[in-house]
Amino acid sequence: MERLFENETRLKVLSVILAIILWFGVMSSQNPDHARTVYDVEVVPEGLDPGLAVLSLEPHAVDVTLSGPPEFLEDLGARDARVTVDLSGVGPGETTRPVTVIPARGRLRVVRVSPQYVTVRLEQRMEKTVPVELQLNGEPAPDYIIENPAVSVEQVTVSGARSLVERVARVVASVPVSGIQSTIAHSVTLVPVDASGRPVEAVYPQALVLEPQTVQVTVPVVFMPQKVVPVQARLEGTPAEGHEIGNITIEPAEVTVRAREERLLQQLEFLQTEPVNIGGLDRTVTREVGLALPEGVVLSGSPRTVRVTVEIRPAEPAAGAGGAGNAPGTGTGGGADSGTEGGGTASDGEAAGGR
C-alpha cells in the first residue's frame, strides 16, 4: 500500500515537470526568438593608459545583431549593446584589436558584430590653455551699432592627441549679426583653429577635446544714426618770420560720425582736429592728428586720425603802401594765435576744411 502511494506521488511530480516543460515548449513555438541589427554602435576604448590619447579608431562604430523575444526587440537601440575595445598595455602607435559586445538586457544575446576588429592609433596625451576669439559675421541693420560684445570665458583647455593639440592656437566663437536690431545672447560651440585660422579637425571625436565646448556670447546692439561732416584743421602758433600759411590739405576731408541723440548730429556742422603746432616753421609740414569729438559723438567706420598738410611759404611782399597782402599767420581758420579754430587760411582761396 505504501509503495503504491509513493508511486502515485512520483507520478504526480513527474506530471507537473512534464507539464512545465510542455508549456515552455509551446510558448517557445508560439514566440520564437527574433533577430534585429542595431547600426552604428559606438566603440568605447577601455584600459587606456592615462598618458595616452586615441588619435583615430577605425571604424569608431560597428553594427551589432541581437536576438531575443519579440517584445525585447520592438524598441531595440544602441543603448541595448555596449561595445568596447580593450587597450590595456598598448603603447603609442597603431594596433588592431577585437571588440567585445555586452547586451544590456539578459534575454538578449549577440548573434553577430560587424566588423569584429578595429584599428586604433595612439599618441602621447597633451593639454594646454588657449584664448577664445569672438568672430562677428556680418553687419547690423543700418543706423545700429554693436557695443562691447562679451564672451563668458576668455580661455579654454584643449586636450587630446599631441599632434592635434600642438596645432591649436586659439578657439573661435562665431556669431552671425547680419541685420540685427536688438541685443542677442547665444550659446556658441567653439571651433579650434591653427595660427592661420584654419579649423583643426579630429577624425576621432575624443582625439581633441575642449573644456568647455560652448560659451555664452552677448552682443549688445544700440540705435545710433550717422552723419557725414567735413574736417577742419586747428592750427596753433605763428610761422617763422617772413613766412606765411599757404594751402591746408586734410585727408580724409570728411568723416562719418554717430550719436544716440539725433539733435547732436543736427547741431554738428564740422569736426576739428586736435591742435597742429606750426610755431616757428619755415617749411611745409605734415602731421597725423586726432579728431576732437564732442561729447556723445563717436566715429563710425572712419579713421581715428587724419593727415594734415600745412604749406609754409615765404611771405609775399606787401602790394603798395596800404599793404593789401596777407600778413603771416592771419586769415580765417588758420590763425597763428594759440587756440584759433578753423581749417585753412584766407590766403589761398579758403583752403580750410580739407579742400
TrEMBL record:
It holds the Pfam family YbbR. It comes from the Bacteria. It comes from Thermaerobacter subterraneus DSM 13965. Residues 317-355 are annotated as: Disordered. InterPro entries: c-di-AMP_regulator (IPR053154), YbbR (IPR012505). Residues 320-355 have a biased composition (Gly residues). This is YbbR-like protein.
